[in-house]
Design brief:
The protein is of the alpha/beta class. The protein folds into two domains: about 260 residues, Aldehyde Dehydrogenase, Chain A, domain 1 (3-Layer(aba) Sandwich); about 190 residues, Aldehyde Dehydrogenase, Chain A, domain 2 (3-Layer(aba) Sandwich). It is about 40% helix and about 20% strand. The protein contains 18 helices and 22 strands. The strands form six sheets. A seven-stranded mixed beta sheet has the order 14-15-16-13-12-18-19, with helices on both faces. The longest helix has 18 residues. It starts with a strand and ends with a helix.
Length: about 500
């Protein structure tokens, strides 16, 4: 597949000589080449989006959402094709890829409610005869800098809300996984948005910096590691932009002795090893409390060892590879670090070779046991299929452990006690809370929250937070005098104002 930019309603070939190899992580084959774009590409896209904004914001909101309804239908009709692309370039299983796209569809559907969601406020008679109105207006040109791990979904946390609210848009896909968005933009082309309303530029850091610095781009969204999120947030904010920057995570789960152990094990295994652990809501740290340790440890080790790993388009595969060789090496080095720090490795996924896919970047599910609190491996986001086990004696210690971490994306609790669940929900310092849930992913009509070093900004993606982020409030204070009052006011003013002729001698005008 040739990777092109989409600017002003046209497919544009970048004028560059350098390309990034896009590799199928299961087979090791080069399947595309992403152009290393330049700031000139961003300039062209921003110019097209700026010119389109003037007319797009004037399109009635009921008409704007009709484009989104059509896009949702086209994406659903082509869902299997999109999922195959996700599997081939990101490594997920086919079922995981299809599930990813369901949330994309749901966000489009929620954004189609913009005629209701964007309504303002009105108060009559804040003073006699004076009314006050708050209206929402679009921000202008907006952009998303997307990650590799959800090449089809993440963009739709933002884009449909921005478009429905009257903004124009630029998407920068991850250079590691450009094919999914390339295909989706072919569907966007079929929808028939006016030229310049939706644009796409490919590239790496130079393209990102062009987006962060461009004066016409007013709002930016990002999902990625915390270090990059801090860079995106600080640089964009320095240039006066609104920013949503989703960072990393080290998501803990607490297992109380009264939990249903078999259910907890299945759900936690799916969370820790689904998508090869490459998602910001993956459970990466399991904290057993009191006598839950032995049973849960035995069950989770069995679940990890029995998971079927391979190419995501093959039947029966439960987990695919990590994204590339660099990621595979990093994950294996972190497993070694855990062992060096004193953790046990009862299930070791290093050195995985899958028959028929010997060049694939596979790491089998791994368990690190008896991880020490405060160790580097306990603090580090591994972003791979590795679950660390820790043990405490009480729920007080467990909650304290959860709240001591630098991240606050998700925290979960497994229990049959309503009292314990309520206490955890109340006290846990995380933006997404799961009770007997392994992946506490908010529905599209709720914000995808995140606290501490897991998020930089104010408004999150999805739901009303996205509406707030992609609109700016304007307050209007109005007085409309009665017609007879207005005539009396005009006559009185004329009688009390000297004519120019009378004023001339006094002002020295000749």
């Amino acid at each position: 597949m040739e990777i092109l930019n989409y600017i002003n309603g046209e497919w544009v070939k970048p004028t560059v000589n350098e390309y990034f190899d896009v590799i199928n992580p299961a087979t090791g084959d080069i399947i595309a080449k992403t152009p290393f774009g330049t700031k000139a590409d961003v300039e062209a896209a921003a110019k097209a989006a700026s010119e389109a904004y003037t007319s797009w914001r004037r399109v009635p909101v009921n008409d704007r959402v009709q484009y989104l309804f059509k896009l949702r239908n086209l994406m659903r009709e082509n869902g299997d094709e999109i999922a195959k692309l996700i599997t081939n370039e990101a490594g997920k299983t086919f079922e995981e890829a299809k599930a990813e796209m369901v949330r994309a569809y749901e966000n489009i559907e929620v954004a189609c409610g913009m005629p209701h969601l964007s309504k303002g406020e009105f108060v009559e008679d804040i003073a006699p005869g004076i009314d006050e109105i708050m209206i929402r207006q679009p921000v202008g040109v907006c952009a998303t800098i997307a990650p590799f791990n959800f090449p089809g979904m993440i963009v739709f946390w933002y884009l449909p809300y921005a478009l429905a609210a009257g903004n124009t848009y630029i998407v920068k896909p991850s250079e590691k996984v450009p094919m999914t968005m390339q295909f989706i933009f072919k569907l966007i082309e079929q929808v028939g948005f006016p030229k310049g309303v939706v644009n796409m530029v490919n590239g790496a850091k130079d393209t990102v910096d062009g987006i962060l610095e461009h004066p016409a781009i007013r709002a930016i969204t990002f999902v990625g590691s915390t270090n990059i999120a801090k860079y995106i947030y600080s640089t964009a904010a320095f240039h006066g932009k609104r920013v949503q920057a989703q960072g990393g995570a080290k998501n803990p789960v607490i297992i109380l002795p009264d939990a249903d152990m078999e259910m907890a094990t299945k759900i936690i295994a799916d969370s820790a090893f689904g998508c090869a652990g490459q998602r910001c809501l993956a459970v990466s740290l399991a904290v057993t409390v009191a006598e839950s340790k032995n049973e849960f440890t035995e069950l989770i080790c069995d679940a990890a060892a029995s998971r079927t790993v391979g190419y995501g388009l093959d039947a029966g595969i439960q987990m695919g590879p990590v994204i590339n060789t660099a990621s595979q090496q990093r994950v294996e080095q972190l497993i070694a670090l855990g062992a060096k720090e004193g953790a046990g490795v009862p299930v070791d996924g290093r050195g995985t070779v899958v028959k028929g896919y010997e060049r694939g970047t596979f790491v089998r599910p791994t368990i690190l046991s008896d991880v020490k609190a405060g160790s580097e491996i306990a603090r580090t986001e591994i972003f791979g299929p590795v679950l660390s086990l820790m043990h405490v004696n009480t729920i007080d210690e467990a909650i304290q452990l959860v709240n001591s971490g630098q991240y606050g994306n998700q925290a979960s609790l497994f229990t049959s006690s309503g009292n314990a669940a309520r206490r955890f929900r109340y006290e846990a310092d995380a933006g997404n809370i799961g009770i007997n849930i392994g992946v506490a992913a908010p529905m599209a009509f709720f914000p995808f929250s995140g606290w501490k070093d897991s998020f930089f900004g104010d408004m999150h993606g999805q739901g009303m937070d996205a509406v707030e982020f992609f609109t700016q409030k304007k307050v209007v204070v109005e007085r409309w005098p009665k017609e007879q009052d207005f005539k009396s006011f005009t006559i009185a003013r004329r009688c009390s104002s000297p004519s120019r002729e009378r004023d001339a001698p006094r002002n020295g005008i000749t």
